[in-house]
Fold this protein.
Amino acid sequence: MTKSFSGKVWNFIKLDQEKIFEMKRSSDISELVARILINRGISEATEIENFLDSKLKNTIPNPSLFLDMDKGVSRIIEAIEKKQQIMIIGDYDVDGITSTYTMIRYLADIGISPKYYIPNRFSDGYGVNEHLIKMAVENKTELLVVLDSGINSIGEIEVANDFRIDSIIIDHHLPLQTELPRAVAIINPNRVDQNELGHSHIKKLCAVGIVFIFLIALQRELKNMGFFKNKQLPDLLEFIDVVALGTICDVMELRGINRAVVKYTMTRNRYSAGISALMEAFNINKISSAEDLSFFIGPAINAAGRIGDPHLALNLFLEESLEKAQKIALKLVDLNKQRKIIEKQIFAESMAMIDKLNLYQDKAICVFGDNWNEGVIGIIAGKLKDKFQKPAFVISFGKDGIGKGSARSIQGMHLGDFFDKTNSEKITVNGGGHELAGGFSMHREKIKEFLNFMNSQINVKFLNSIDIDYSLSAMSDLDKISKELSTIEPFGKGMEKPIFCIKKLRIRQSRKTNSGSHLMFIFTGEFDKGTIKAILFNSNSKGGIVNSVLENKLELFDIVGSINYNEQFGSGIVIEDLRLSI
């Protein structure tokens, strides 16, 4: 089987033509759309109708289906009525920042001024700790609201209980044990004891999505009590763009309510001051795709927590003045540039270690260094995972000999299960995570034991292939196809962008972009029929592919990639891979 310049096998998905025809007829959709929906596991008439007509009113569940939702609402209403001090503790990533902002802003809209704090990655670590509980005590807190963490904070919540501080936890992470913290309310669709919520997609909510549903329940109860008799009823839809941002940046599956939230944001064209300020900084006029949020807005917000103070990002959202928000946005953009420089240096050091120690044959990639910035090691792990197509672990050791690590995995190797074993073997401390992403800490003297365990336990092969949805030609009208694809946007996790193949193309022109980071092409079809514009992003890190293209630039190529539409340049192909035409 012929492999491409990146060493991948191209898999042209074959479908039953009769099934495609039946979908076209029953659902009034095109052959292209029918093929893509089947490839994404959507084929029944009801599924197709719900997918194409994703609306908030059809996908938002009854909040009371969540365990402890009504308890949490009752407790926060009690705090409001008794004028008790509320303190909110969030998290330093986009989901945590947007969750915290949404809760603070809603309470402010109804006349409540809570205290709040975003843990610092470097001085506080992840989630709630005893230091933060003491801070709550100093602020005379009577109700602690923990967002985007807390499901595993059993000891910390017990300390809060000792100080007679009640807690509400709103989280979406998986519990690491059957025991739960003794909070007044734990609202988490992934609780092991949570009953069916009506739709499987509810389990895929991020923290800000659950906060949004909590506020729906809170507003419903306040309204029933007559709380808004002489007050303005807050418009919860004003938070939708922020909920969409957290959903996309936490890589939630775009089905059901998640899809409806992002789709509504793309069509509504109204944004908070914070998002508007970052859009202006990146010259984005309208959120037209999920990538506008994941490639531009999200990384700038995350930069504050990765290499600076996460409160800078929170202040961006809390700032109601667009002019002041714009100044904060520029600081975040600058931080993100600094983050890229730090990341580039650590990646270079990682590659030097891999070369020096010849780690290419290891079952997984594990690199480590002294005082590497903990805020970027997760990104490095992701890059190493993609480059070597195997699980990757990146560890930063401090002067005290304690290493903070981040891990990224591939299908077939569950990091949560892996860290359960390393924890029980006393190799790591507090290791845990989801299937494909995790974090851990360990002592320096355990590194050899960790490497041996890693190579003995991990035995999984990366599926080194690209699934292709549809074949086009150089004569295809990409603008027309792009418009057709807009009916099934937004694209993201669970609804990945369609991948197309175009065969027998000749390079008419190639050049670097102004930044020097990307390589642009103009292809013509065989016998100079048709023209296709294309771009290979981050070509500097894809030397093998670029060299193969340049060595064969007079030959005919096949390319695979997704279609991207740009108002200035029209539609073109974002290249995933190339090969010589067969």
The radius of gyration is 25 Å. DSSP finds 20 helices and 18 strands in the chain.
